[in-house]
């Protein structure tokens, strides 16, 4: 195994799920000697920096676990290498993580998954979870336009991806785009600014003209560029496979009684690299902190939006029950529209059928009712 470079690090950042997360890596990443299989760490590896985005998601989903992350930065990027070479590098990484006595391995690299996942599962006696472009998620979101899959050249040309694309080719138009230049930006820690925007514009072009409404970030590196992409292409939805991978691993560990259910005060992470450059580990730390903070902010935003939605529904219920400014028909329309009598927002056509009214009339009445409703509740929210 190649000699690995490490540097001492101890960092405390804001907690995920109200926990203190302690990220620790040692000059010698200590061997994990737990006899209790549930307390053994989870191994995660990537060709370099991209897998850190997956690691952050795993920490969010499984805060009671410990992790060993290996970034093969000395050999990055994998996406432009021959398949056999990528396969050999993936085996090296899994052997290294196995020596750390990990209980499962996440191949946090779409390219390595394409090249080696089947062989890895045959040769290592622990659960191994791979990554693939989240095309299924994108298609099931019913995009209004084409779906663009951005990935490395190897991922896009492998049979595994072509089989996946074939499954959904009848659902919507699917385009592919190799983007190796974006991997280099993330490896250098360049996530925003003129250089990033220039590279993105040159790579993606005019997405509105191309009719693209959804981008699948089919490389874990690209997740770090989500804000830069949204800044330029605000009309486009972004999809990645990190959440799905974390959920799948958690379910897998639960099914095999390997999930650590003991509540811990800290989450331990050993950050390891094949590079001898101490800056590499510093970059891992910065990217991990960056991603964890984004995940936390996103969760807080979702909780705030859910709380606001709950308050609005409560106010609507009050208006329907007590306010005399709305007619009975308007109250019924609002009740259906905002899920008071249903679990979710109801389309005009369904409401029209329920109330035995023409759809056009329902839409006119609904517009008037919603205007009245807004004027009634706007000062209460």
Commentary on this structure:
With 381 residues, the protein is α/β, with parallel strands linked by helices. It folds into three domains: 9-131 and 242-301, Rossmann fold (3-Layer(aba) Sandwich); 135-239, Rossmann fold (3-Layer(aba) Sandwich), CATH 3.40.50.1860; 323-377. 50% of the residues lie in helices and 13% in strands. The chain has 15 helices and eleven strands. It has helices spanning 51-61, 83-99, 110-123, 135-140, 153-157, 159-168, 180-187, 194-204, 207-210, 226-232, 242-255, 278-322, 328-337, 348-355, 359-377; strands at 9-13, 21-25, 42-46, 67-71, 104-107, 128-129, 146-151, 174-178, 212-217, 237-239, 269-273. The protein has a five-stranded parallel β-sheet with strand order 6-5-3-4-11, sandwiched between helices. The protein has a four-stranded parallel β-sheet with strand order 8-7-9-10. It has a two-stranded antiparallel sheet with strand order 1-2. β5, α3 and β6 form a beta-alpha-beta unit. It is globular. The N and C termini lie far apart (61 Å). Residues 1-33 have low confidence and may be disordered.
Give unreliable regions as ranges. Answer: 1-33
The CATH topology of the largest domain comes to Rossmann fold
CATH class of the largest domain: Alpha Beta
Helix-strand string: EEEHEHEHEHEHHEHHHEHEHEHHHH
Using only C-alpha atoms, the radius of gyration works out to 24 Å
Biggest sheet: strand arrangement: 6-5-3-4-11
Structural class: alpha/beta
Strand content of the residues, in percent? Answer: 5-15%
How many β-strand stretches? Answer: 11
User: What's the tally of helices?
Assistant: 15
Number of domains: 3
What is the average of the pLDDT values? Answer: 84
Q: What is the architecture of the largest domain at the second tier of CATH?
A: 3-Layer(aba) Sandwich
Q: Calculate the terminal CA-CA distance, rounded to whole Å.
A: 61 Å
Main pleated-sheet profile = 5 strands, parallel
The coarse silhouette is globular
Question: What percent of the residues sit in helical stretches (DSSP H or I)?
Answer: 40-55%
């Amino acid at each position: 195994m190649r000699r690995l470079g490490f540097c001492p690090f101890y960092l405390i950042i804001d907690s995920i799920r109200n926990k203190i997360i302690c990220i620790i890596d040692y000059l010698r990443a200590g061997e994990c000697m737990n006899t209790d299989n549930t307390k053994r760490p989870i191994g995660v590896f990537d060709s370099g920096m991209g897998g850190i985005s997956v690691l952050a998601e795993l920490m969010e989903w499984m805060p009671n676990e410990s992790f060993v992350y290996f970034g093969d930065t000395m050999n990055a990027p994998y996406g432009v290498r021959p398949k056999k070479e990528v396969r050999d590098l993936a085996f090296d990484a899994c052997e290294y993580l196995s020596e750390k006595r990990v209980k499962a391995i996440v191949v946090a690299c779409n390219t390595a998954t394409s090249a080696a996942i089947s062989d890895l599962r045959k040769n290592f006696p622990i659960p191994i979870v791979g990554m693939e472009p989240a095309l299924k998620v994108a298609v099931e979101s019913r995009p209004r336009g084409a779906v663009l899959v951005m990935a490395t050249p190897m991922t896009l040309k492998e049979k595994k991806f072509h089989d996946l694309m074939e499954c959904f080719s009848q659902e919507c138009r699917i385009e592919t785009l190799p983007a190796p230049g974006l991997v280099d930006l993330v490896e250098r820690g360049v996530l925003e600014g003129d250089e990033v925007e220039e590279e993105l514009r040159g790579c993606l072009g005019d997405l509105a003209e191309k009719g693209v409404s959804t981008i699948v970030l089919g490389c874990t590196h690209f997740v770090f560029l989500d804000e830069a992409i949204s800044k330029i292409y605000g009309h486009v939805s972004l999809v990645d496979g990190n959440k799905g991978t974390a959920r799948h691993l958690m379910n897998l560990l639960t099914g095999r009684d390997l999930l650590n259910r003991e509540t811990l005060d800290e989450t331990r992470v050993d950050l390891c690299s094949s590079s001898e450059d101490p800056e590499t580990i510093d970059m891992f730390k910065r990217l991990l902190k960056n991603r964890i903070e984004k995940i936390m902010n996103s969760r807080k935003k979702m909780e705030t939006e859910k709380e606001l939605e709950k308050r609005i529904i409560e106010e609507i219920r009050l208006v329907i029950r007590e306010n005399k400014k709305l007619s009975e028909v308007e109250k019924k329309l609002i009740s259906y529209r905002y899920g008071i009598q249903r679990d979710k927002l109801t389309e005009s056509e369904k409401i029209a059928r329920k109330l035995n009214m023409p759809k056009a009339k329902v839409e006119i009445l609904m517009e008037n009712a919603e205007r009245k409703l807004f004027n009634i509740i706007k000062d209460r929210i």
